[in-house]
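Its record is quoted verbatim for completeness.
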Amino acid sequence: MDTLKAMWETVPPATPEDLAGARWRLLNGMHTRRRFVTAPRLLIAAGVAVAAALTPLIIGTGTPAYAVTKSPDGTITVTVNELRDPAGLQAELGAAGIKADVSFMAPGMRCETGRFASVDPAYGGSGATGPDEGRWRSLKATRPISMREIRIAPEHINPDETLVLEYRDNEDTHQPWRLGAWLAQAGTPVKPCTPVADPS
């Protein structure tokens, strides 16, 4: 980029006569003479513009914040590397056939409870405990498979139910986030997340 700028500074500016002659040749379709005083400046300017456009592409080729992968058996793997762009992850899940509500929370925060009507007692109250918890679909719909991945099993999600995913920043490289995953009843709304302090 600096080389292009240095080259630009060495090219003399075109005079009004040069520009008038270039316009005349362009308008009259004269293709035989293409050497204008302005041509080097135009080429260098184009090079600067291309370099400026490519710089974000080169810099932004790191690990993506998240990925959604559909397996042949119908399960969906969600990988979350960074807690950013929850709306983008939600849209990708929708494209994969999962109606979802995704929230990313700062350290020490969670969404206020009472946002939706759950299909089972896994949401709210004392948490996912009790003699019937093995039958709760909320616990079957998602399973952690690594420190950054969960697997979604669509067979445990009924039509028009919403999978509510609440990722909480754990500030730990070995366990980067904690996840709350529940199913909201079909046809019922999920209110926007209101961040509150997480006492746990």
Notes: The chain has two domains: 2-59, 66-197. The chain has five helices and nine strands. The beta strands are 66-70, 76-80, 100-105, 109-111, 142-144, 149-152, 162-169, 177-184, 195-197. Residues 2-59 form one domain.
